[in-house]
Amino acid sequence: GSMEPKGSKLLLQELLTAAGNDACADCGNPEPDWASLTLGVFICQACSLLHRSIPHISRVKSVQDEWEDSELMAAGGNNAAKAKYEQKVPAFYYRPKHTDCKLLREQWIRAKYERNEFEFIEKQEPYSAGYREGFLWKRGRDNGQFLSRKFVLTEREGALKYYNKQDAREPKAVMKVETLNATFQPAKIGNPCGLQITYLKDNSTRNIFVYHSDAKEMVDWFNAIRAARFHYLQVAFPGAGDEELVPKLTRNFMKEGFMEKTGPKVCEGGQVCTPSARRLCRLYFDAYARGEVFIGSKENSYTVLAGLPPSTQGHHWNHGITIVTPDRKFLFACETEAEQRDWISAFQRVINRPMRPQEYAGERDT
What residues have CB less than 8 Å from 207, skipping those under 6 apart? Predict the structure, then answer.
């Protein structure tokens, strides 16, 4: 009744304001309103749903609920849990944020609390050994059907390869680690474990789409690719520290969607992505990147303008964008004003970033 002591509510408030407990222990979302009693961590609602998939390890409760004193004592807080469950997370390992897909967040939670991967180094073998092989379902280029293909990632050769036939001697494709990017794209691939792998071949961007039915397997591939990129970059930039290299390992696309490419000759629709890494900061259209625009920085006279030159013909959409490069103008049209605004700000962010000397090499290929 109304006479019961309010002790546990006060203790809970105290715990919540303790250092480290102001952000979700698993994804960093601010002001977590759930907790795992068994693990002693404060988490956000989205992560609490993922904790429910490991009920043998985590029992969750809302901080709004009534708490027993014994339950409070078990909650050691986020900093204590981090010291235990994240003591040996490799620098290259991807730590998901609350904006990442469910698969990445759930596997991070399972890796930490269920598989204890960051307490025992030997459990990291699948992504830290420098060599990995296995079968992935790969989408066919022409018919869109997924077929099982053997993939081999080798750091020593600096390549990810795949083979079309089981006993094939020669790989169908060799993707250099140097230009490799991997990003989870479940919606685009139609599978929660869908990974889009992007690489450069003959100076143009190619994509392959793969998935595996086992979520851990796919996240292990993703982190193995990040590990290979990390070790490649450590050699390529010997002076750079982890904090400089880690953001370069894999990139999510900054902006992706449809624009119409217009111009004096031709009007073609197509998908355009600007990955945020300048080495791949190419705007590409058509599924197989038959056309690309390298985007440099403003000190090399690259600019982006709203609108199209008055003489432009052959476009149905009204919200134009002109990208001015030292050699020519590229013209695009967006369907809505909001899309136009988003694209312009994405280009602006790229153009405002100064180029590094090694990025100049990329400019001559377009």
Answer: 196, 197, 198, 287, 288, 289
Q: Report the distance separating Cα 218 and Cα 6, nearest Å.
A: 48
Measured CA to CA, the distance from residue 189 to residue 196 in angstroms comes to 8
* Contact in structure between 90 and 242 (CB atoms under 8 Å): no
For residue 274, the tally of other CB atoms under 10 A from its CB is 22
Copy the structure tokens of residue 12. Answer: 């809970």
3-state secondary structure of 133: strand
DSSP secondary structure letters along 239-298: T--HHHHGGGS---EEEEEE-EEE-SS--B--EEEEESSGGG-EEEETTTTSEEEE---G
Judge contact between 159 and 181, C-beta under 8 A: no
Q: How far does Cα 60 stand from its chain's mean position?
A: 28
Alpha-carbon distance 325 to 211, whole Å?
37
CA distance linking residue 360 with residue 354, whole number of Å: 11
Question: Can you tell me the distance from the alpha carbon of 91 to that of 53, in angstroms, rounded to the nearest whole number?
Answer: 27
- All domains of the chain, ordered by start, with CATH? 7-85 (1.10.220.150), 122-248 (2.30.29.30), 253-365 (2.30.29.30)
Encode pLDDT of 240-281 as tens digits.
Answer: 999 989 988 988 765 666 666 665 444 444 445 544 433 334
Length of the chain: 366
pLDDT in tens, 155-196: 999 999 999 987 889 999 999 999 899 999 888 888 999 999
DSSP 239-252: T--HHHHGGGS---
Amino acid at 135: F
Strand ranges in 120-186 using DSSP code E only, listed in sequence order: 131-139, 146-154, 159-163, 173-176, 181-184
Sign of the dihedral defined by the CA atoms of residues 27, 29, 30, 36, in that order: negative
